[in-house]
Amino acid sequence: MVNIPKEHKAAVCEGAGKGLVVKMVPTPKPESNQVLIKVLASSLCFSDEFAVDHGAMGVKFPLTPGHEVVGRIVQKGSGVSDEFKEGLLVGLGWNGGYCQQCEACRKGEFYGCNNGLVTGFHTEGGHQEYLTARWEAVVKLPENSGLSPAEMAPLLCAGITVNDGLNATGAKPGDVVIVQGLGGLGHLGIQFARKAGYHVVAMSGGDSKKDLALKLGAHDFFNAKQGEEFKKKYGGAKAAVATAPSSAAISSLLPLLARNGVMTVVGIPPDGKNLEFAPMQLVSNRCTVKGITCGCSINNEELVDFAVLGDNKVRSMVNIKKLDDADAVYKDTAQGNPRFRNVFVFDE
């Protein structure tokens, strides 16, 4: 039986633009259909900014953000099955729960739930020692996977987003696939693409990350100004996944697609500008541009199982941080400085 404290430490945002303050808060008891999780690792995602700085998506303050979480169940409320036992290693991603009744849910498209919740926006997030979560949001994780909780946490948002983006292209092993951008999503995208058997071409704004891209598994590398060189060598890409934080950079990918090529956009550039494509490029080559949002808990379970399979595990590059430094760590993340994920780590 775990000794659950009456209070625990949390990074709290009191209002939009007010940053994070570390304070003691009451430890909640799980309500019906909820579990209480002792957090082991909570990764900072750039999307935390939408809640902390902008109060977006109807968030209510005070709030603790964080939607890339790994921990253990220490208590559960009524209505939670024995599949979610105390002591189970679990995670939480972007999807914080769904109604199970709307049309999207009844079709099994839980990511499109009309009443869907987002972890760290509409429910408490992971930048704290304990939190409650709805059972349908909980991701069951493998023990002894070879990944630490800190390495596993970013897979639950960044990892599933970019891997879903790859899967949505319909690319097959051996196809030329571009992974654009080498940040929190892109460094995982290269690894997932290589593991899936694609011929992986990494693209970045400059050459500074070339060696890292090749080390992560890319077969080839081009900088943003070498589009013509890429076309001469490959003719075009069957697929491209755009993770770069720039609308102009994303727009530049379309001319690099082969006939019937597919591009997926997996992030929202903070510059606020629209993507721009020449209609002739879309029409003449029959290209497709798709948007992808995060999957749900069962999708994350499948993703993590794939990530840890075999010797070539997909491993997040992380910087271990202390919760006491939460506001400084958050600002560092918001400025795009980490290579590639800052993660709060807690004692087990």
TrEMBL record:
<dbReference type="Pfam" id="PF00107">
    <property type="entry name" value="ADH_zinc_N"/>
</dbReference>
<protein>
    <submittedName>
        <fullName>GroES-like protein</fullName>
    </submittedName>
</protein>
<dbReference type="InterPro" id="IPR020843">
    <property type="entry name" value="ER"/>
</dbReference>
<keyword id="KW-0479">Metal-binding</keyword>
<dbReference type="InterPro" id="IPR011032">
    <property type="entry name" value="GroES-like_sf"/>
</dbReference>
<dbReference type="InterPro" id="IPR013154">
    <property type="entry name" value="ADH-like_N"/>
</dbReference>
<dbReference type="GO" id="GO:0004022">
    <property type="term" value="F:alcohol dehydrogenase (NAD+) activity"/>
</dbReference>
<feature type="domain" description="Enoyl reductase (ER)">
    <location>
        <begin position="15"/>
        <end position="344"/>
    </location>
</feature>
<keyword id="KW-0862">Zinc</keyword>
<dbReference type="GO" id="GO:0008270">
    <property type="term" value="F:zinc ion binding"/>
</dbReference>
<keyword id="KW-0520">NAD</keyword>
<dbReference type="GO" id="GO:0005737">
    <property type="term" value="C:cytoplasm"/>
</dbReference>
<dbReference type="Pfam" id="PF08240">
    <property type="entry name" value="ADH_N"/>
</dbReference>
<dbReference type="InterPro" id="IPR002328">
    <property type="entry name" value="ADH_Zn_CS"/>
</dbReference>
<keyword id="KW-0560">Oxidoreductase</keyword>
<comment type="similarity">
    <text>Belongs to the zinc-containing alcohol dehydrogenase family.</text>
</comment>
<dbReference type="InterPro" id="IPR036291">
    <property type="entry name" value="NAD(P)-bd_dom_sf"/>
</dbReference>
<dbReference type="InterPro" id="IPR013149">
    <property type="entry name" value="ADH-like_C"/>
</dbReference>
